[in-house]
Design brief:
Neuraminidase, 2 helices, 7% helix, mainly beta, 5-stranded mixed β-sheet
């Protein structure tokens, strides 16, 4: 009889445990959606005896409709003034380069990412003296290679590092490529097996190098693009984002009038709604829409990120002159106000920090 009572008590306890763990119908459904924006700031204090400036900020809820900066988390990486920042889920790391203005810093730094996006420094950095002005970074998961565009030494080139996650000592690049047309390259991404590069200068635009990412040549003096896409009237193209899910391309551009303290700027975002079509042929391309004007607050946009998720809403832009990161709608056109704005102010400083690069981790 005692054994029967024991089994009965165990059954009751099991039922109670089951119902107490069952989710209440009034609770919101669980979501695995991620929208984390990493911002790289160029602020740097070259006096080691003083407090160092945070150079990365994580916005863990960048697609929050009410507050893009909800629970913003500053972080101090080892980079001596942040420039380009890049994240790829397959790499499980963030790569960050230096602005190289206050001090010479030719490393590409690696940051570890926790389950919630929290950052920690990985002291195994990529050491290479040529990396003096890294403007674009992209990682190829299946080849396990990191591609870095640099203007080090005044000769624009891109360098390929094998197995970058494990690099900790000085190593020569596995491959080195120079651009045949002596372009002024800025941003870089990979579409299929092609390297896509944004270029600045008069009538700048995009150059596509088909099959270049699978090339096995170690050193190439010059590589010729497969396709050249020119944007009429473009002057200072910088950032680029190619969204193959929603078939979009975004470029940043700006016009500068004057120099020094009297200089004025007018920034703009160029949006192309059919990337598959324009990338299949060379020649002049025209934006479907242009976001520009006084209401936009854009002055010198240097980096841009499209949300790659299906039917996503937002586009993000870093503007160092405005000292802000802006969020616009992908459907915006003309002189429209940002959908949201984020500015970071270092503790004890009166002015906002200067954003130089952004990288978006958006997954469902």
């Amino acid at each position: 009889m005692k054994l029967k009572y024991l089994f009965a008590l165990l059954a009751i306890a099991t039922l109670i445990g089951f119902y107490s763990c069952e989710k209440d119908d009034d609770e919101p459904p669980a979501s695995n959606s991620i929208s984390r924006l990493y911002i790289s700031y160029s602020d740097f204090n070259d006096n080691p005896d003083l407090t160092q400036f945070n150079n990365v900020v994580l916005l863990p809820n960048s697609d929050d409709e009410e507050n893009m900066g909800l629970r913003a988390t500053p972080f101090l990486s080892n980079v001596k003034g942040g420039n380009t920042i890049y994240f790829n889920p397959s790499a499980r790391l963030i790569f960050q380069s230096s602005i190289n203005t206050t001090v010479t810093d030719t490393f590409v730094y690696k940051l570890n990412i926790g389950e919630t996006g929290a950052l920690s420094n990985d002291n195994n950095r990529i050491r290479q003296g040529l990396l003096r002005d890294v403007r674009g970074l992209v990682f190829h998961p299946s080849l396990d290679k990191l591609y870095a565009i640099s203007n080090g030494g005044g000769t624009p080139a891109y360098y390929v590092f094998d197995r970058p996650r494990g690099l900790s000592e000085f190593r020569k690049p596995g491959q080195t490529y120079h651009f045949k047309n002596e372009i002024v390259p800025w941003d870089v991404t990979i579409v299929k097996s092609g390297l896509v590069v944004s270029k600045s200068g008069t009538n700048g635009g995009v150059e596509i190098y088909d099959n270049l990412v699978i090339s096995r040549d170690s050193i190439v003096q010059s590589v010729e693009p497969s396709k050249i896409l020119t944007v009429s009237d473009a002057v200072n193209i910088r950032g680029m984002s190619v969204d193959t899910v929603n078939n979009m391309l975004a470029l940043t551009d700006f016009v500068q009038t004057g120099t020094g303290a009297s200089a004025t700027y007018e920034g703009r975002i160029l949006i192309f709604d059919d990337y598959a079509k324009i990338s299949a042929a060379s020649g002049a391309i025209s934006p479907t829409r242009i976001i520009k004007g006084v209401k936009t607050k854009l002055k010198q946009p240097v980096d841009v990120e499209l949300d790659f998720r299906k039917d996503s809403k937002y586009i993000y832009v870093a503007d160092p002159i405005s000292k802000a990161v802006y969020r616009f709608l992908k459907t915006d056109n003309g002189d429209v106000a940002p959908n949201a704005t984020y500015q970071y102010q270092q503790p004890g400083r009166a002015e906002a920090s200067i954003p130089r690069g952004i990288s978006l981790d958006a997954r469902n």
